[in-house]
Amino acid sequence: MNFQLHSTTPLANGVRMPWLGLGVFKVEEGAELVEAIKSAVKYGYRSIDTAAIYGNEASVGQGIREAIADNGLTREDLFVTSKVWTADMGYEATLAAYETSLSKLGLDYLDLYLIHWPVAGKYKDTWRALETIYKAGSVKAIGVSNFQIHHLEDLMQEAEIKPMINQVEFHPMLTQKELLSFTKASGIQLEAWSPLMQGRLLDHPILGDIAATHGKSVAQVILRWDLQHGVITIPKSTKAHRIIENASVFDFELSTQEMEAIDRLNENRRVGPDPDNFDF
């Protein structure tokens, strides 16, 4: 695949989503976040991923507005994602939560809205709310996050609209091969959060050797591995040089042998919660 920073992939409904975006998990409201978004957009990022629980939607919105103004862009040039938190799940509560996120962001619509976690007994009613928002034209695409195969199968038994995205923890220590195969076969685009395992893979010797071969960093190798697996990725950084480094993954390609070597690092290790035992 010939990826570039502006490259996009079509979701099941034809909406195009950038392959690479900026994640803002655990970045607090304030000037640092605003500047990070402005730096990312200036360099060429067009996708920003946040969530209600991150508590930073207001600064994300400010950063988006300033970045649009600074770079002569329009709102339609950017792809903005947020997520409904577990405390707001359920049909009516989700409808209200969506409006709250729009208000905090200062936006008229989102490009993508996700159910953050598959809370048992709640995600079906929550999905109905997302379908309502989507049918009303208030969001361009809808999806889920942290859903395993059995969650997706259960949801799709009753859903009118199939999830377009499943955003999950995905990195060389958690390759989720069965889930990746299932989503590809089902027409659901997989998206990686915590692609760098919160920095825990940056000193890995095998990844270091592959990185040295290409004159790249370990982070760049991992992000390239995501892309070559057909997985959208949203690395987090607030530092301009890291934001640029994370996007400098389009001028090299991992060989089949290198991809397989990275795949073999899988240990089914998570840094986040287990979706089957999530009780937040």
Write up this protein:
With 280 residues, the protein is of the alpha/beta class. It has a single domain, classed as TIM Barrel (Alpha-Beta Barrel). The chain is built from ten helices and ten strands. α1 runs parallel beside α2. The radius of gyration is 18 Å and the shape is globular. The relative contact order is 0.14.
Helix content: 40-55%
* Gross morphology: globular
The separation of the N and C termini measures 39 Å
Helical stretch count? 10
CATH overall fold name: TIM Barrel
Unreliable stretches covering 5 or more consecutive residues: none
For the record, the CATH architecture stands as Alpha-Beta Barrel
Instruction: Please trace the helix and strand order, writing H or E for each element.
Output: EEEHEHEHEHEHEHEHHEHH
Order of strands in the sheet with most strands:
3-4-5-6-7-8-9-10
Tally of individual domains: 1
Number of strands: 10
Could you give a short account of the major beta sheet? 8 strands, parallel
Class based on secondary structure composition and strand pairing: alpha/beta
> Looking at the chains present, what oligomeric state does this protein adopt?
single chain
From the alpha carbons, calculate the radius of gyration and give it in angstroms. Answer: 18 Å
CATH domain class name: Alpha Beta
CATH 4th-level superfamily? NADP-dependent oxidoreductase domain
Strand content: 15-25%
Let me know the average pLDDT: 97
